[in-house]
Known about the structure:
There is one protein chain. This protein is α/β, with parallel strands linked by helices. Helices cover about 45% and strands about 15% of the residues. The mean pLDDT is about 95.
Amino acid sequence: MRRVSVFGATGSIGQNTIDLIARDPTAYQVVALTGGRNIAQLAADARRLRANVAVTAYPECYDELCGALAGSDVEAAAGADALLEAAARPADWVMSAIVGAAGLEPGLIALRQGATLALANKETLVCAGALVMETARAHGARLLPVDSEHSAIFQALVGEDLSAVERIVITASGGAFRDWPLERLAVATPAEASTHPNWAMGQRITIDSASMFNKALELIETREFFGVSPEKIEVIVHPESLIHALVGFRDGALMAHVGAPDMRHAIGYALHWPERRSLPVERLDLAKVAQMTFRAPDDARYPALRLARQVMARGGLSGAVFNAAKETALDAFIAGQIGFSDMSTVVEAVLEHTEAQPGLIDAAMTLDNVGKTDHLARQCAMSVMAKRAG
Length: 390
Ligand code: NDP
């Protein structure tokens, strides 16, 4: 039996992962399931899958979790240390699907155990790409992409020589506001930004799709995962979300990954890799699809893409700054404290401020320095927002 753990089990990716695991219960021994505040879901899945331990990230949810697990053999645990302890439990395959920079450390610990880490949490590579890749190398662990674009690239590269790659094209739906008049963006509400035209995802990534901060993170993730230079990575708006990414080779061939927008495709590929097994996803009827359309991303609508290119050019810890500033601005947007268009303005200001602090971005990429930089960038974002409000 394969030992598996799912970090972020109660979220959108976590639930899709559990859906696949639960279809073949005799194949897996579930070591750890972790969640946040959705205790009922966490406990129900832990009982159903007979997990060894269920962990909530929040100590104040511990009693509720114990109550929900009463009478079962599942151990209950809570808090940041418990999450890291769960990550250290030996497992063969670990899904990293916590949202945000909070996913970094559990993923690093799993890699140190030599586990295969299925990486949905893109923030891991954005904040600490070099550290994560080096940790995987040093411990003989494998990283497998779960973001649909990166899974598509990974699949298009099977049997190929990376040196023959001329370009990588990642697609973007364009998000909730792709056809809105630009001047309306400033007054867009969190509820409006939380509806995605094609994908059913968690709220934060859905809003990040509308602003294209999600694609910005994915640009950086592509660079870190595949080690290609930023000039070779392109973004194209593809409203139908059927092609997830394309890889262009030096002979001019473009290999595309085409499939219905269902994350179980990429999750299943990572779960069964290197085999391809049958998955419960829709088979595309191309005659019904009839057409697929593409357009260049509009720089004025999606300033996050320009900022991501700035981050890739700068390197060092600027990814950690970018992500922390983005997460803080996103929290403020969700709380109604800043407007939709303010998010990129705040992130740009934080990148400028932190760049001016000697040595910050160029400090060694250790977990400690990533954490400190993340903290400073969040404080800086708060003060930028406070100044703008005052
Ligand atoms: P969700 O918001 O749906 O789920 C996030 C999960 O993380 C939940 O289990 C949540 O617990 C838990 N969580 C939240 N905050 C913390 C914290 N501070 N510490 C520990 N656990 C926490 O997110 P998604 O599933 O949409 O996304 C997860 C990751 O995968 C993100 O990095 C996202 O960018 C990436 N991704 C998502 C895709 C998608 O289709 N959804 C596609 C590709 C990548 P609870 O809900 O119980 O509070």
